[in-house]
Amino acid sequence: MKNIAVTYKTHYGTTKQYAQWIAEELGATLLEQKEANHANLQEYDLVIHGGGLYASGILGIDLVVKNPVNNLIVFTVGMANPETTDYTEIIHKNIPEGLREKTKIFHLRGGMDYGKLSVPHRAMMAMMKKMTIDKKSEAELTAEDIAFRDTYGGNVNFTDKATIAPLILYVRGL
């Protein structure tokens, strides 16, 4: 693959950070979602799209769903641990079946600074805490629940450049 674009959409910057690292490693063009369109995406042999996970959605995924490209990789960025999280429902909700079969997908871990969250996102996190964490007994809490509870309202950052290695190796193997 010679001509690669890395597109992304982010609210708070962790997806952008991963997109920058990936573009640097691969010598790819970096495009924020609003800079990309059907015409310029067709110029690339491979498009790698990154989107943050919010309320079961992948930010900016409509860019590559509505503007299909020949070769597509998607990476998501969220707070959950990719090693223990099942993303099947999210992927099925966001990427149509025909596209899903020919798209390689990677999941990366992001971060959150509650002080920078928008009012709707802060409300969404409060509702999530109330609906899940607060309703469980201590014995019912999973490791993810405990991590969420312990970092709620603060600042946590799990971004790690080393975690892009499988994606980079995959692309170099194409």
From TrEMBL:
Flavodoxin domain ranges (all copies): 6-137
The family database entries (Pfam families) matched by this protein are listed as: Flavodoxin_5
Q: Which InterPro entries match?
A: Flavodoxin_dom, Flavoprotein-like_sf, Protoporphyrinogen_IX_DH
Highest rank taxon of the organism: Bacteria
The name this protein goes by in its record: Flavodoxin domain-containing protein
- Source organism per entry reads Ohessyouella blattaphilus
